[in-house]
Protein 1
Amino acid sequence: MKNRMRVEFDSISANEAFARVVVAAFMAQLNPSMEEVADVKTAVSEAVTNAIIHGYQGQVHTVEICGETEGRRLTVQIKDTGVGIPDVEKAMEPLYTSRPEAGRSGMGFLFMEAFMDEVQVESEPGKGTCVTMCKQIGTDGD
């Protein structure tokens, strides 16, 4: 069975927790373990934080989360229409940050990759970024 959802919210840091809860509630239909929920929530948090901090640089715009389940596979997309990433490969290097003055550690993509099975980043300067993350939930096939 396939299921989808889409949620939009303002790019303010208070909505990071909201995004985590929305995705956790959506994935509940797959009967995930607590560890799987924690992994996905961490990855979502990192992606949403990137959209807020880097994509919109403190301005309030819209962040969109799209989720899909098909079988036991969860796919989550975090989209912004912010400044975009000029060099995605460079941005995904551990410890690289475009905002060192803001105290950013450059570990966001590393965490997303560690907690999800797949992470893809599409971005165009001036048009925004879409982070797509996938995770197989459970192994028992029910």
Protein 2
Amino acid sequence: MTELVYQSAFARVTHTRFVVLRRDVRGSAAVELTLVAPLLILLLLLVVLCGRLAETKLRINDVAHQAARAATLARTSSQAVANAEATANAALASAGISCQALSVFTDVNGFKPGSTVTVTVSCSVGLSDLTALGVPGTRTFHSRFSSPVDVWRGTSSLNRTGDV
């Protein structure tokens, strides 16, 4: 009987200690922060990655715009293609974007005053340098922009239909 009383007294004391410990919240904020901090840091790096991808897409759009505008200022279709490629390379360099594979396609079909020049830029960018995540692989950005050739500008003698 004394053993039974002893066990029940021990159980009561143990139960009381657990109740007291359960109500004690000292240090719980530090434990929660320790558990949640890596997830918050990972979320922050993911937001940075998404922001950098969006910024790169906007810059590629601007590169296509600049290349199309430079192509419309040329006097011949071959010069338009060369201007578009040179402008795209210069705009990418000034934007700080290094493409692993760059493709600049200039559609100068029917190049004459009043026509439209369309430039398509494709740029493959490595993702490993975007954040500290070390994301593997590449992402290819495509952008297309059309610009009209000015109706009132002159052309070279090669593009004129009529007098030379």
